[in-house]
């Protein structure tokens, strides 16, 4: 039987829930819509979904709180698309760092939202292009670090786990899947967030800075993520796939 993707909408605006639900159902998706975090938790206790559409601005627990909560629970691998009425860049960055896979600003067209949903689902199910890593207990080793692709955290030389946000993990994963290859901002945005770069969008630059901090990289003389002037960034060390543990 063909799998039909199940989308969970979490938004306190009833009109948006109804309009988006109707459009997604018309385009062949299963949809459940709830009004707040409490209803979301109740539903997810007994159900699984393929993707969550999460409103940023809600009374009570907002989208950032719920996204952070989802990323440490049993639904940590479920893709999230954040809805935001704000256009401020830092709000978008914070949403991505809290674990959202993409965002879309209100007002939006249902057609664009559907396209974003399909892109995020496609990316979530796509094997890495270069290394083709199996996710079953694999470690990727580079320099003094290891990246646990199952737990999605870094492991330092002493064996200590270093937590990563969802956005940090996705960006680092793109780099280690494409070592010693220059990637520009457009490519990094497309590979990590499934969208084209927007004018003055510095989200990738800010995330690169955060990942460098995680790796203890000096931005002036980095060891791992080097800046290639006028071109982008390159992960400059070789990556080794370790044997399953």
UniProtKB/TrEMBL annotation:
Limits of the Response regulatory domain: 6-121
SUPFAM superfamilies membership: C-terminal effector domain of the bipartite response regulators, CheY-like
Residues annotated as domain OmpR/PhoB-type: 137-237
Gene3D superfamilies, sorted: 3.40.50.2300, 6.10.250.690, Winged helix-like DNA-binding domain superfamily/Winged helix DNA-binding domain
Keyword terms, alphabetized: Activator, Cytoplasm, DNA-binding, Phosphoprotein, Transcription, Transcription regulation, Two-component regulatory system
GO biological process, one term: regulation of DNA-templated transcription
Residues with 4-aspartylphosphate modification: 55
GO molecular function: phosphorelay response regulator activity; transcription cis-regulatory region binding
Residues of the signal peptide: none
SMART domains, sorted: REC, Trans_reg_C
GO cellular component: cytosol; protein-DNA complex
UniProt DNA-binding residue ranges: 137-237
Localization (cell): Cytoplasm
Pfam family, one: Response_reg
InterPro entries recorded: CheY-like_superfamily, OmpR/PhoB-type_DNA-bd, Sig_transdc_resp-reg_C-effctor, Sig_transdc_resp-reg_receiver, WalR-like, WH-like_DNA-bd_sf
Entry superkingdom: Bacteria
PANTHER family: DNA-BINDING DUAL TRANSCRIPTIONAL REGULATOR OMPR (PTHR48111:SF4), REGULATOR OF RPOS (PTHR48111)
Protein name, UniProt field: Regulatory protein VirG
Protein source organism: Sinorhizobium meliloti CCNWSX0020
Biological classification of the source: Bacteria, Pseudomonadati, Pseudomonadota, Alphaproteobacteria, Hyphomicrobiales
């Amino acid at each position: 039987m063909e799998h039909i993707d199940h989308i969970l909408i979490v938004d306190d605006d009833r009109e948006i829930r109804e309009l988006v639900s109707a459009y997604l159902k018309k385009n062949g998706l299963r949809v459940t819509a709830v009004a707040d975090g409490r209803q979301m938790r109740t539903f997810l206790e007994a159900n699984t979904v393929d993707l969550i559409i999460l409103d940023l601005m809600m009374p009570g627990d907002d989208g950032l709180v719920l996204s952070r909560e989802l990323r440490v629970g049993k639904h940590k691998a479920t893709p999230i698309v954040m809805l935001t009425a704000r256009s401020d860049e830092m709000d978008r960055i914070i949403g991505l760092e809290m674990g959202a896979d993409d965002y879309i600003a209100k007002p939006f067209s249902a057609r664009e939202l559907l396209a974003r949903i399909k892109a995020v689902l496609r990316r979530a199910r796509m094997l890495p292009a270069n290394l083709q890593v199996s996710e079953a207990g694999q470690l990727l080793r580079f320099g003094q670090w290891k990246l646990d692709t199952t737990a999605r955290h870094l492991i330092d030389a002493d064996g200590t786990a270093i937590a990563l946000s969802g956005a940090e993990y996705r960006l680092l994963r793109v780099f280690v899947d494409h070592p010693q290859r220059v990637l520009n901002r457009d490519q990094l945005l497309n590979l990590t967030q499934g969208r084209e770069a927007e004018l003055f969008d510095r989200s990738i630059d800010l995330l690169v800075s955060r990942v460098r901090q995680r790796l203890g990289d000096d931005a002036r003389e980095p060891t791992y993520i080097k800046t290639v002037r006028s071109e982008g960034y390159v992960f400059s060390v070789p990556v080794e796939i370790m044997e399953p543990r």
